């Protein structure tokens, strides 16, 4: 006899009905979730309201225009006339290619051509021949009348019989030396104004800050690399650099310089150091190159150079206050000789007067040969470099200079009325 389990069958029937209800419920939930996803995704894809964002379409037109204006304003580079160069970086805000395109043509090459005697057979001298003695860079900073004015380094043009200016497009024109100053290593050269395509504007080197981005343009290693551009930062300000004027390996003067890590190499001398807006802040002058040093380039601050440039334009030389005497360091004199001068044993530094020039401030003020200068206007003087630095930077023609001296073993004071070094 067959036995049927009614409870089991009823359970099976309930299970089938529950399954149909669960399927219906899950389908309904899926439809709701799908509708929500479509409602969220479609507006983001721009498929509503004719392709525009629903949020934007609901905004008033004035609000949309203001939002667009704000977005454009933040994307634009700073205005050149109002931007602070110290606040710009080369990565953002400073368009280096645009700066180079605008002012790069104002940086030129300068070839120093000198006359050299050539020897023929058996060493017999022949006629002199003009040959290139070296190349450097220069910066066109002014056009006035028929002339364009170029600032460069004195050592770029020293000893030249001719100066050849190479423009950015490779064209060569004749240059003429307007003036030079060995003490600051600056020179001014002129050429025809019609040849100048661009002029660089002077900046303000007194406002520079360490870390500020800079651009260097010049002709490293000769004219084959003309117009080379390097970038870096201001590494240091008011660096004091000893200058050897007469080639005796001893410093004769101290020059103020800007230190930068922008690459400066032989041939860059006289080239441009620019701020991030393209204004001239320094004249590239030299680099410190040893096995243990990397990335130390030096430039003459433009604020320091401008008064020299103006005098070189006007006079061809620089008017400076002078005493009118030849001097030597007391430290270079033998101890026995110093004793003969009657100097105190503890006096080890100062400046000894070698010769007094006629009709000079020194002669009119009573300074004599073998006087030993120990102070100027109350400031201790240890060597000729220090005295020369004080005269060149702190004194003007016609100023009084109070000297403390030792003469015949006695300390005394003299007052000189300084004269023009170009009128002695």
TrEMBL record:
Output the Gene3D superfamilies linked to this UniProt entry.
2.30.42.10, Trypsin-like serine proteases
| UniProt keyword annotations, A-Z | Hydrolase, Membrane, Protease, Serine protease, Transmembrane, Transmembrane helix
GO BP annotations listed? proteolysis
Q: Which SUPFAM superfamilies match?
A: PDZ domain-like, Trypsin-like serine proteases
Residue spans with biased composition (Polar residues)?
56-72
Q: Where are the transmembrane segments?
A: 21-42
Q: Name the domain of life.
A: Bacteria
Repeat among keywords: no
Q: Which is one GO molecular function term here?
A: peptidase activity
Any coiled-coil ranges, and where? none
Give all residue intervals belonging to the PDZ domain. 330-409
Q: Which InterPro entries match?
A: Chloro_Bact_Ser_Proteases, PDZ, PDZ_sf, Peptidase_S1_PA, Peptidase_S1_PA_chymotrypsin, Peptidase_S1C
Which family does the record assign? Belongs to the peptidase S1C family.
Identify this protein by name: Serine protease
Please name the source species.
Saccharibacillus endophyticus
Lineage, highest ranks first = Bacteria, Bacillati, Bacillota, Bacilli, Bacillales
């Amino acid at each position: 006899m067959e036995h049927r389990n009614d409870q089991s069958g009823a359970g099976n029937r309930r299970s089938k009905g529950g399954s149909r209800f669960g399927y219906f419920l899950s389908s309904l939930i899926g439809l709701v979730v799908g509708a929500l996803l479509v409602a969220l995704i479609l507006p983001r894809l721009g498929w509503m309201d004719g392709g525009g964002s629903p949020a934007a379409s609901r905004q008033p037109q004035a609000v949309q225009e203001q939002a667009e204006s704000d977005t454009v304003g933040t994307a634009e580079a700073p205005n050149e006339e109002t931007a602070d160069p110290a606040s710009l970086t080369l990565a953002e805000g400073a368009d280096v290619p645009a700066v180079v395109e605008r002012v790069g043509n104002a940086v030129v090459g300068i070839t120093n051509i000198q006359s050299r005697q050539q020897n023929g057979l058996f060493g017999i001298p022949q006629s002199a021949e003009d040959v290139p003695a070296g190349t450097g860079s220069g910066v066109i900073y002014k056009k006035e009348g028929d002339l364009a004015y170029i600032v460069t380094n004195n050592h770029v043009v020293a000893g030249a019989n001719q100066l050849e200016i190479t423009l950015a497009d490779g064209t060569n024109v004749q240059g003429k030396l307007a003036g030079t100053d060995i003490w600051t290593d600056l020179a001014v050269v002129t050429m025809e104004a019609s040849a100048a395509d661009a002029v660089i504007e002077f900046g303000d080197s007194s406002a520079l800050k360490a870390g500020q981005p800079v651009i260097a343009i010049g002709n490293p290693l000769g004219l084959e690399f003309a117009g080379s551009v390097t970038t870096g930062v201001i590494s240091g300000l008011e660096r004091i650099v000893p200058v050897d004027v007469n080639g005796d390996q001893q410093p004769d003067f101290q020059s103020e310089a800007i230190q930068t890590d922008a690459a400066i190499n032989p041939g860059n001398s006289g080239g441009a150091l620019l701020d991030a807006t393209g204004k001239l802040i320094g004249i590239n002058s030299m680099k410190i190159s040893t096995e243990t040093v990397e990335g130390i380039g030096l430039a003459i601050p433009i604020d320091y150079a401008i008064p020299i440039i103006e005098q070189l334009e006007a006079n061809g030389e620089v008017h400076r206050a002078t005493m009118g005497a030849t001097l030597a360091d007391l430290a270079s004199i033998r101890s026995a000789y110093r004793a003969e001068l009657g100097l105190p044993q503890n006096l080890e530094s100062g400046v000894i007067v070698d010769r007094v020039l006629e009709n000079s401030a020194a002669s009119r003020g009573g300074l004599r040969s073998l006087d030993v200068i120990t102070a100027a206007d109350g400031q201790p003087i240890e060597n000729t470099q220090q005295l020369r630095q004080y005269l060149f930077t702190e004194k003007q023609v016609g100023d009084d200079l109070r000297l403390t001296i030792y003469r015949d073993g006695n300390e005394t004071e003299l007052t000189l009325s300084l004269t023009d070094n170009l009128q002695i």
